[in-house]
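Objective 1b. Sequence-to-structure analysis of TRAP transporter small permease protein.
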Amino acid sequence: MTPPDARLERLLATLAILIIALISLANVLVRYFTGGSFAFTEEFSVFLLVVLTFAGAAVALRRNGHIRIGLLERALPGTPRQALILFQGGCGLIVLGLITWYGGKLTWQEAQWGSLSPGLGLPQWWYLAWLPLLSGLMLLRQLQQTRDRLRGRLEDES
């Protein structure tokens, strides 16, 4: 059986790490040859690291690769095991739901206030909008993972 995939998140993570590498390399070369550096690299790199983190976490969720202690889960028989899986999934959904809600609220407030980023003076909400979007994708992946685990499609590592 092929493992489940999160193609969109893999693509986002790949693009983020590629762009981080390219702008960091360019910044090093410019600094070496001119003594100056690009002003935007730190701000973009931090933003792209956040995108990379959330996208990678979504991929790990979909592939059942997040760290958890499965000793109790493996020791339980059918119905209590499924109740534990539902509890785990529910806790994940609550946390991701809160991140999505408050991330969206923060993004909306920043757009209303017209806040600008400290480095480049870009609208702050451009950066923040990715928080609710990617945590929403993680929420979807949490739902898929919980469903697949309940149906026995995803096995835990032994």
